[in-house]
Write a structure and sequence with these properties.
The chain is mostly helical. It has a domain of 112 residues: Glutaredoxin (3-Layer(aba) Sandwich), CATH 3.40.30.10. The chain contains five helices and three strands. It has a three-stranded mixed β-sheet. Helix 4 runs parallel beside helix 5. The relative contact order is 0.15. One of its GO terms (molecular function) is dystroglycan binding.
């Protein structure tokens, strides 16, 4: 009888702790509403101001993605962005990430107009990197699904510029 109750008690303890562990794990990965489909493993900031604060604090560049829900170009870019493992990993580990569907009051984030999609970088010194542009001269900060390698290069450039300038 003693053995039986010890066994029952240990099984109960195992059940409770594994449930607790699962609850803790669930708590940590809250549903990613802020990702809006751009990457659920990435930690996204909610506002531009929060992004600037985190960039300065962590000494990581801020990547700002302007997009709209009903824009087909944004949807196509989002899909390519979310499916690219290298981009997802860099975004997750080396950048403060923000995707927004409204314009910010910072005019530096729309140097050549308020079009979507556009991706801009802000370094930890809170300087908008107007020198990190995409491939199109009419919309300097736009990227298309086939431009993911180009975006990766620009992400690396944003990281390099921090090390060399700050």
């Amino acid at each position: 009888i003693m053995l039986h109750s010890t066994l029952a008690l240990s099984l109960l303890l195992i059940a409770v702790t594994s449930n607790l562990a699962m609850a803790i794990k669930k708590e940590k990965r809250a549903p990613q509403t802020l990702s809006r489909g751009w990457g659920d493993e990435i930690t996204w900031v909610q506002t531009y101001e929060e992004g600037l604060y985190q960039a300065k604090k962590s000494n990581k560049p801020l990547m700002v993605i302007h997009h709209l829900e009903d824009c087909q170009y944004c949807q196509a870019l989002k899909k390519a962005f979310a499916e690219n493992e290298e981009i997802q990993e860099m975004a997750q580990n080396n950048f403060i990430m923000l995707n927004i569907m409204h314009e910010t009051t910072d005019k530096n984030l729309s140097p050549d107009g308020q079009y979507v999609p556009r991706i801009m970088f802000v370094d930890p010194s809170l300087t908008v990197r107007a020198d990190i542009t995409g491939r199109y001269s009419n919309r300097l900060y736009t990227y298309e699904p086939q431009d993911m390698m180009f975006l990766i290069e620009n992400m690396k450039k944003a990281l390099r510029l921090i090390q060399t300038e700050l």
